[in-house]
Design a protein that fits this description.
Largest sheet: 8 strands, parallel, barrel
Structural class: alpha/beta
Oligomer: single chain
Shape: globular
CATH architecture of the largest domain: Alpha-Beta Barrel
Radius of gyration: 21 Å
CATH superfamily of the largest domain: Aldolase class I
């Protein structure tokens, strides 16, 4: 049987969350899901600290670089740099609704300029050998979503784009904050289903409000892929089921095993001078709903933020969870050994 492509299940680009440490952690939970960077503007790529902004660990593959921008020349140069860094895909953000993004003429406001988007996509496609994809909303403000979405997709497809990630909400740029734009505009999954049905030659990935793998599997009856966002970040343990349930490969990844697999990465970053909290903050939800989850979060948060914190903090947090599990099974709680940690 032909393996399912990585876009069948992906983890969304999320500002301040899906940095290289987060992606390395997610990768120990799933070998197959496609991971995305945070959005990086073309200005930052061209003029900023590229290693800090674009550097990633080889373990993260397959991983896509998401760009924010609108100038075809800058997009082309940024896409080439991303390809040279070794990314597997370049993705253009036409969905972020923040004020800063609007003032920079990129993100969701570009839904109003589909010709410019298509020009930029064509330029990037001509410049690199890796796939160039588009992530968008179904429309903004007073646009008719059926007209806005299909026009953007059709013009971009004519420019050579074959894969689209569609956040199935309007973006209300007037009157809603970026946070409110993630929840308040109603979802329109049937419109995204219709896009796939009427453009069967295109790869259509659905994003927005997908809270579980059960929901993802239901959407996959209608589209080519599903992108998980906050659900994957706040409860990363669900990613440990992705390879089996979505890709039909292997077994589930136990959270304890995931932490052990992540520890060499943590050790490497610590040795390079980075702080433990930068790695462990992405792990806080790993034991969500399980005995010891509160102790896990407390130890990682409190002890992990102290100067010089190292892998002993992770070990103590794991021991607290293991003790809580044993206590639950034995009928009595076992206290977490937080007091044994160095001050």
């Amino acid at each position: 049987m032909t393996p399912k492509p990585a876009h069948t299940l992906s983890v969304a680009p999320m500002m301040d969350w899906t940095d290289r440490n987060c992606r390395a952690f997610h990768r120990v939970l799933t070998r197959r899901a496609l991971l995305y960077t945070e959005m990086v503007t073309t200005g930052a790529v061209l003029h900023g600290d590229r290693e800090r902004l674009l550097g990633f660990d080889a373990c993260e593959h397959p991983v896509a670089l998401q760009l924010g921008g609108s100038d075809p020349v800058d997009l082309t140069a940024s896409a080439r740099i991303g390809e040279d860094f070794g990314y597997d895909e370049i993705n253009l953000n036409v969905g972020c609704p923040s004020d800063r993004v609007q003032s920079g003429r990129f993100g969701a406001c570009l839904m109003r300029e589909p010709e410019l988007v298509a020009e930029g996509m064509a330029a990037m496609i001509a410049a690199v050998r890796i796939p160039v994809t588009l992530k968008c909303r179904i429309g903004v403000d007073d646009q008719d979503p059926e007209e806005a979405l299909f026009r953007l997709v059709d013009l971009s497809a004519q420019a050579g784009v074959s894969s689209f990630v569609v956040h199935a909400r309007m973006a209300w740029l007037k009157g809603l904050s970026p946070k409110e734009n993630r929840d308040i505009p109603p979802l329109d999954y049937p419109l995204v289903y219709r896009l796939k049905r009427e453009r069967p030659e295109l790869t259509i990935v659905l994003n927005g409000g997908v809270a579980s793998l059960d929901a993802a599997q239901a959407h996959l009856e209608h589209v080519d892929g599903v992108m998980l966002g906050r659900a994957a970040y706040h409860e990363p343990g669900i990613l440990g089921e992705v390879d089996r349930r979505i890709f039909g490969e292997g077994g589930d990844v136990d959270p304890f095993a995931a932490v052990e697999a992540y520890k060499p990465y943590i050790a490497g970053r610590l040795a390079a001078g980075f702080h433990l909290a930068g790695m462990t903050r992405h792990m806080l939800g790993l034991f969500h709903g399980r005995p010891g989850a509160r102790s896990w979060r407390r130890i990682l948060t409190v002890e992990g933020s102290k100067a010089g914190a190292g892998l002993e903090v992770v070990d103590a947090a794991l021991a607290a969870v293991a003790g809580a599990v044993a206590g639950r099974e034995g009928g009595r709680p076992i206290p977490a050994p937080a007091e044994t940690l160095p001050a």
